[in-house]
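ESCALATION

Customer reports they have been waiting on this structure for their group meeting. Please prioritize. Original submission:
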Amino acid sequence: MKKESIILLKKLEEYGIDVFTKNDLLLKEFNDKAFRELIKQDYLSMIEKGKYCRYNFRDENVIASFIVKNGGVAYWTAMHYHGLTEQIPNTMYVQTTQVKRNQVIFGVPYNFIRVKKEKLIGFKTIGYGNHQFRITDIEKTIVDCFDLPQYGGGYAEILKAFKNANLSAQKLVKYCKAIDNIAVIKRLAYLSELTNKPKMDYFYKYALSVKNEKFNLFDSGGNKNGHTNSRWNLIMNMDEAEILEISNS
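Update from on-call: job pushed to the front of the queue and completed.
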């Protein structure tokens, strides 16, 4: 290996840089020829065109945030990170406003879910320096998974996550306003009452104020039969005993 390449590797170590673009390195006056040699010899790995990492760096959360301009880790992946489900997703779910094709990076599938910019809120930053990543907080994760349950690991997993989550009524209202999905609001309000979530009066008041006359399925992917719940205008296509059994499992 050439001297310039060794110097570049040492500088990456010195600066604590694991994910980067070529321009990031050039701005630090790193040697471009050395960069190309390290790519060729697999000391550096290409994540996608224009984005790279050190050969042994495989933190999926950091990589997910690095390759989208905004947004970050969300849905089932965030649900697992927050300890709301024991099931480990084999896909990285990333929420973004970008149009981005799903891809496999270092053997891991990345699913990019495009949303309107109004929905792109509720992220917190984890980690330090070059190892930072963005992830939806607990309340936004719950709201997102009810909004798009196909990315939440299935309705049973979402119900269990809801039961396990310590929720802020104020944050729920904020995020429900952002997603603008009244059916989700009604489902969350019903579940909050059923599972005796504490300090939810603020959320109930909001939910009642926006509740419409339409009756929505409790499980949007289930059958269309069931008795009606007039308080929240839901068609209960799941039995309450079944909901509680799943939630507590």
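Sent to customer with the following note: The chain has eleven helices and twelve strands.
Escalation resolved.
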